[in-house]
């Protein structure tokens, strides 16, 4: 069977070819609604599909979006970010073109040029971890940055609220009664997320009236082995300042803390509480006990970026940075500090209160 033509629809509906063209292209005209319905019904009956090329020439829109990323297939978080973008594109009848540059500047430049030549309706530039970067040459002015932001500004972007996430993670520990809380940091090239999470850690300690000990901040390789080495250093500290709770830069490092604790016969959370970051699939929830962690909102960021690119989400200035909430996922790795430590903390709190009362009386 040959390709169905507009003349076939006209014959089936009993109208002219021009009438079919006006109806199928949603052109404003005085054609009665009953006639429009007859044309649409006839088109469906004969299997007619309007030419997307012809429609794009008329509307100046191709209903396509290009997404360029440094890494798509090689990170555990890319799938959720792409799923969010893809779902919004599909909901609004757009096709998403994905280009993985592997961080190659030449491939990136060619991809931007090729997508521009295809006249995509919008472009999204994504990174697979929170970064500040230089704006790629040739990127359209209305492009949206996903999980990254341009150093010079000038574009809308969405990134995780790492500082607030770090603060929420440590609050979960202070609310459980912990006063000696360590931050196991990364010593690798992830300065933005690491520093922001550390700032959140310090803010939460300050809120709880806790003076951080420099010995509680330990950096190591971002891996289970790195987490284990850092935890062993912290567990070797003198009892007076030994942490009863660890906040880890990511879930993989937290699994190293589990190993260090188990090797010493410590129970989580009876003897030691642990909070991770990422809520990494097949990692956080699979620990014994399941790990309390902070979720990176990759799916939500993907949706936000696509909505902004398509003009569905219009709030914010052109160079506004949207910080997406990172919620705490509460599982079973957080409990109160060990009984003897809890008594020490209560005694310290009682002495602090008594000193405060005495000072007030003296005045």
From TrEMBL:
Provide an example Pfam family for this protein: Peripla_BP_3
Q: What is this protein called?
A: LacI family DNA-binding transcriptional regulator
Q: Which CDD domains match?
A: HTH_LacI, PBP1_sucrose_transcription_regulator
Under PROSITE patterns, the record lists:
HTH_LACI_1, HTH_LACI_2
Query: Which ranges are annotated Basic and acidic residues under compositional bias?
Result: 351-363
Write down the species.
Answer: Microbacterium dauci
Residues crossing the lipid bilayer are none
Q: Which domain of life is it from?
A: Bacteria
Outline the extent of the HTH lacI-type domain. Answer: 4-59
What residue range is the signal peptide? Answer: none
């Amino acid at each position: 069977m040959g390709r169905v033509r507009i003349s076939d629809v006209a014959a089936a509906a009993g109208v002219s070819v021009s009438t079919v063209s006006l109806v199928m292209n949603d052109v404003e005209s005085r054609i009665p609604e009953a006639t429009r319905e007859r044309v649409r019904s006839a088109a469906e009956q004969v299997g007619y599909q309007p030419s997307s090329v012809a429609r794009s020439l008329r509307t100046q829109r191709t209903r396509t979006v290009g997404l360029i990323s440094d890494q798509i297939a090689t990170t555990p978080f890319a799938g959720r970010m792409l799923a969010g973008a893809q779902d919004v594109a599909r909901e609004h009848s757009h096709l998403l073109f994905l280009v993985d540059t592997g961080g190659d500047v030449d491939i990136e430049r060619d991809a931007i040029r090729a997508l521009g030549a295809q006249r995509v309706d919008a472009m999204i530039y994504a990174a697979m971890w929170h970064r500040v970067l230089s704006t790629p040459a040739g990127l359209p002015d209305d492009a949206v940055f996903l999980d990254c932001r341009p150093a010079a500004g000038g574009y809308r972007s969405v990134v995780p609220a790492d500082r607030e996430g770090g603060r929420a993670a440590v609050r979960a520990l202070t609310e459980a009664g912990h006063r000696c809380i360590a931050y196991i940091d990364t010593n690798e090239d992830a300065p933005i997320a690491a520093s922001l999470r550390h700032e959140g850690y310090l803010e939460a300690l300050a809120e709880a009236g806790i003076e951080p000990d420099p010995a509680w901040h330990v950096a190591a390789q971002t891996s289970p082995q790195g987490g284990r080495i850092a935890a062993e250093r912290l567990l070797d500290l003198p009892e007076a300042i030994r942490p009863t709770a660890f906040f880890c830069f990511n879930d993989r490092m937290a699994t190293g803390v589990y190993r260090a604790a188990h090797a010493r016969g410590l129970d989580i959370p009876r003897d030691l509480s642990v909070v991770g970051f990422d809520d990494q699939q097949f990692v956080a929830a699979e620990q014994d006990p399941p790990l309390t962690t902070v979720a990176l909102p990759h799916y939500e960021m993907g949706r936000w970026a696509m909505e902004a690119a398509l003009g569905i989400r219009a709030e914010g200035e052109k160079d506004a940075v949207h910080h997406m909430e990172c919620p705490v996922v509460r599982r079973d790795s957080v409990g109160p500090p060990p009984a003897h430590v809890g008594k020490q903390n209560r005694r310290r709190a009682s002495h602090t209160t008594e000193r405060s009362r005495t000072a007030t009386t003296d005045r």
